[in-house]
Amino acid sequence: MIQKVDIQIVERLAPKSGPTSSADYNATQQEVINSFAQIANSWNNSLQPLLDTLPSGSTTIIREDRTSDPNPYINGFDGSQIYMDCTSTEITDDGKYFDTVNNRPITIKESFEDLSATLSRSLQDISVQIAQVSQNTGVTPRQKQAIGSRIFDSEQVSSPGSLDGITQTLIRYTNQLQLDLAGSSSYLNGSGVQTLNFPIFSQISAIQAAHSYNAIFNTLDHSNLDIHNHKYFQVPVGDKNAINKTYYLPGTDTFKTGTLQVFENGETLRYPTHYSELPNGRGWIFSSSYEAPESDDDIWAHYILR
Fold first, then answer.
1. What is the b/e burial string over 235-248, where b = at least 16 CB atoms within 10 angstroms of the residue's CB?
2. What phi and psi values does residue 234 have, to the nearest 5 degrees?
């Protein structure tokens, strides 16, 4: 570190045209000598060793002897030892000028190395992109295949995974739905005009109402039109809300023993692991090990009337 030079010379009073005291003269000379000694010491011990590391200086810098921390007196007075910004931290300037590994600001040399590496990567990326679009057509045959051949040539069959291939698959699915729902692929003309007087769901519901529908075995039976003892009951939203685990059928309904089936959020619960029937056939109670339903759970019960 170059030290500050402090000039200390005291002005002394002397008689006009009179002789100067030898003590005053010697003291003044000593003060001048001390000031020059400070200048010489700062130059010889601080400034000269620093400047001597510059090119053509007498100090030889050996690369292997350099320390990891910048120190111009040991490592040489060059760009590898001068900070880009000595006030930089890992937060300032988005950390661009701070070395988190060595916990110090980066030097001028390190900054240029980072810049060179970034430029090199950018040039490599640009070269790859240019190579991918090197033909005059702008789109290579391989790129055409990835997009879908039929976009460029109607005689070519597109890959099933291409946009055109997926569109063709959807068309086939739609045609199948037309056949399944209306019995004819031309019955649903796609014009946006309703061609079925009643929705398919309504028609199926009407069929179920006119026949004995067994939801468990998913069958329609013409032989039991006068028997409609199968019932479904949906627990009201928010009922119980985990206050307790006992549920009752609506009205005066009671079920035949062994016919009760409980569903929660579309899943069939196991009897008697998850629930047990009330002895009077009026409802059920969830097992102690089973978590009580919450207000947003969907609970259904299917049973045969007693």
1. beeeebeeeebebb
2. -100, 125
Residue 252: give its domain's CATH number. 2.60.40
User: 120: number of CA atoms within 13 Å, CB side?
Assistant: 6
Q: How many domains would you assign to the chain? A: 2
Looking at the fold, whether 188 and 239 belong to one and the same domain comes out as no
Domain that holds residue 180: 153-197
DSSP state letter for 37: H
Please indicate, yes or no, if residue 266 is contained in any of the structural domains: yes
Model's pTM, two decimal places? 0.32
97 within domain boundaries: no
Write out the chain's pLDDT in tens, 306 residues.
Answer: 555 656 666 565 666 665 566 776 677 777 777 777 777 777 777 777 777 777 777 777 778 878 878 887 787 778 787 888 888 888 898 888 888 888 888 888 888 888 888 888 888 888 777 776 655 556 667 776 666 655 666 666 666 777 777 888 888 888 777 766 666 656 566 665 656 666 676 677 777 666 666 665 666 655 444 445 677 778 775 456 556 688 999 889 999 999 899 998 888 899 999 999 999 999 999 998 888 888 778 888 888 888
Is 113 contained in some domain? no
Both 298 and 242 in one domain: the answer is yes
